[in-house]
Write a structure and sequence with these properties.
The structure is a single chain. By secondary structure, the chain is of the alpha+beta class. The protein is 32% helix and 24% strand. Strands 12-13-8-17-16-15-9-10-11-14 form a ten-stranded antiparallel sheet. Strands 32-33-28-37-36-35-29-30-31-34 form a ten-stranded antiparallel sheet. α14 crosses α15 (551-562). Mean pLDDT is 76; it is low at 1-14, 16-31, 250-254, 419-446, 454-465, 491-503 and 928-945. InterPro entries: AAA+_ATPase, CYTH-like_dom_sf, P-loop_NTPase, PRK/URK. Keywords: Membrane, Transmembrane, Transmembrane helix. It holds the Pfam family PRK.
Length: 983
Amino acid sequence: MDDDVVQRVFQEGGRDYYQQPSTSSSSSSSILQSLPLHVSFDHGYYLLVKSIQELREKKEGLVTVGIGGPSGSGKTSLAEKVASVIGCNFVSMENYRVGVDDGNDLDSIDFDTLVQNLQDLINGKDTMTPVFDFQEKRRVGSKAIKSFSSGVVIVDGTYALHARLRSVLDIRVAVVGGVHFSLLSKVQYDIGDSCSLDYLIDSIFPLFRKHIEPDLHHAQIRINNSFVSSFREPIYKLKCKSEQSPNGDPSASTFHGKEAMMDNFIEMYLRPPSASEEARINDWIKVRQSGIRYYLSLGDQRIVDRHYIIRPKAEFEVGRMTLGGLLALGYNVVVSYKRASTSVSNGNVSVSLETIDSLGETYMVLRGTNRKTVGAEASRMGICGPWITKSYLEMILETKGWVNGIHYYLSCLLNSLQLSGVPRINTPPLTSNASSISNQEQLIAAPKPLRITPNLVNRLEDLSQPWTRSPTKSKMEPVLATWHFISSDPPLAGGSVIDPSFRDSLHLAPMPDSYDLDRGLLLAVQAIQAVLENKGLPVIVGIGGPSGSGKTSLARKMANIVGCEVISLESYYKSEQVKDFKYDEFSSLDLRLLSKNIDDIRNFRRTKVPIFDLETGTRSGFKELEVSEDCGVVIFEGVYALHPDIRNSLDLWIAVVGGVHSHLISRVQRDKSRVGCFMSQNEVMTTVFPMFQQHIEPHLVHAHLKIRNDFDPVLSPESSLFVLKSNKQVAYQEILRILDPAKICSSVQNFIDIYFRLPGIPANGQLAESDCIRVRICEGRFALLIREPIREGNFIIQPKVDFDISICTVAGLLNLGYKAVAYIEASAYIYQDGKILVEVDHIQDVSNPYLQIKGVNKEAVAVAGSTLKLDGSYTTKSYLQIIQERLPVLERSSSGIHTQQAARLQELVQLIQSQCNIVMEKQGSSSASESSPSREASPLDGVIEDMQSRIKRLERWHTINTVLWTFLMSAFVGYSLYQRKHK
């Protein structure tokens, strides 16, 4: 690493461990050499983990990390996610308070103790960190941190990048956004353009520009967190009056041995300035005060589905002066009440008794992150309603009308805030909502192509606004748009195979804008509810988009919220089409059966939905589906879900773009720039996604709801899978013992991994995974893996799944200049029980098989490895590295692979390109008659048979082994179950 780059990375007094002169002129890439100005939350998480790993390799002793930013920006979430991956010590500056004033006040932080604690750890000494109790409003004790317990310490807090701490920090991370930006956008919307952004910041966050923002510019990693609240992991609630429960005390239920938690809150609602009393309560700001802490949520975002109240994790901590700033801007506290809560939890469901003073009633509330689990717990406790789906605010307003008076404690608090020196506006600006209403009622006159905006990062001097003070959307509408219906004549058949008489004259009006995944998920569920209210059962939804865009994830999240059925269009594949790798052709779908199923659903008839086995490429059976009051919604998801022949019979059309689709485009642009060639997003798209632009996107632009999936499934910590790998021999009986015998299932897969690399990318003489795009061919399907896994200790941390792509995308990479530089053939025996997956991989040319334990729970994976006595035998090397290390030097090619692979790779490349050409020719010749479902596929050339024989070659020499393995495993499981039943 060059000295000037090091000085740039460790500027402003950071701990520069490169004091000695450089002894190497190597230009090897370092993640610390090219830190961008600011990145997304997911990308920042990935950069931070990789930076910590690099520093631990290049320096001795402790690595210290500071994560700073304004209240509600997401810095604590980032610190917790990083700590869960690398297992480091986590120090919160909240415990270093010396008073009960606003936590953003510099004088309330004990910097001397914090610096001393860090110095002790850096010098290899144990230390005692303070513990602050926010209910008692004082320091109540201390906690010991061992110097040898971890090689990394993360300090999280508003002033974590303060000058007094920077000299003891190795890595400095700034996080802005979250509720900080969203609250600014909300206030801008409420009060209009009468106040500048700087004035609003000084009012709501009076200490930010003076004491916080200057420190953030010293960060090496700068994160712009657009994530605010999400229904990706919602909280499900069931609420009833406490007398409806057989046991009035939740701790008296089967939560034996669980400690009851007691808390008291004051909840207040702030109405926008000059808003009429008839203004929607969803526009209000909710503030919850607990002890000396304040939590804010923007509006009453929730979904009510039958008996369930479904809420996002939408509360963020703010300072007391933020509340005073909102009052100074003209917001009024119109409703407030006290809520006393006693709750117990078993880890999956919490049960609370909540007393609301304004209502004089006590309510029992069950909460959990899984809808079925919450319902099952209510049934087990013998609670069957009547359920209450109204919020406490709605009940108070219905009972007492508008509350003009507020609690004495709250009035004293508000008076103290007004006397705290917060600037006030003499005349609150008027609110104008007319423009937003008119925008909501506008229809799309001319559909426009869907694109994902490139996430390009500019230099600091190129930014028109400081990155720390620019809301992600300057005109962001804080209130969710509402759905409207239009009356029109039923659409003409136009060759559609489905009778359009199903359609009513009442149709949803398309939303004029596109939305991110979080807001789109909420709007999608609200659209279903709107159709149910206006048209009744059933509601049939179609979700379309390119491969890897997030269609399936969105459909499953919607189904979890609404409690409905999801059907993949892959279930309607024709066997004769699939065996020829034509997954992306519209003709591969059995449209006649699909039409019949939709017809039966529309007319409340029981219907049989096909089940397609992708491993065998054949239809394996059917499952019955019947629409009822409990399940009146059906979601169809697939690439062609919005094709005219399908969407004309659906009630709601949803288009999703982004995900791995946009990530691959960004990756190609990055690789091209590294070799001195710059390509536009459109140039890359037309090459790697030709089917999308020609045959998929034209249907998506007509969707009622368009969703931009900016969520990065490749980099995000939300999709992490923890893997332990070992080549130690383990008997399959031992594998079965660590799995649940009642849920165990097994399978065998054969796959080929091909590594594509762009010539000209700098390398160190050996082929590295980070420089390659890996494409896996398994059972005739193609899957993509772009990201190099994170390696932490014994663990390999990688995305949960690979992402399906078409053969045309693989050919597009070849057309862009990527070269196939290596391949691996293997077979995998897979055993899983829903929590743990054990995979035994037999790699060609490698004598011993490798065993991998995979799971989303790090501790469960570690326990499984210890049970199998694998400790001390783990490796984090990839199969590519393992094979390369086994090759004699004389047998390696210039890329570091076996010279005999060149011919085999060339065969695979030619087969892929030939197959893609055939698919494109067929699509081009059939585009004129695309709406006709009766067209048949012509026979393919013999080259496809060669491809099939190549992919299934390993099946021949593993057939006998597979049969014996399966037979023995079945016998062992059967015998175990017999013994258990006998005992």
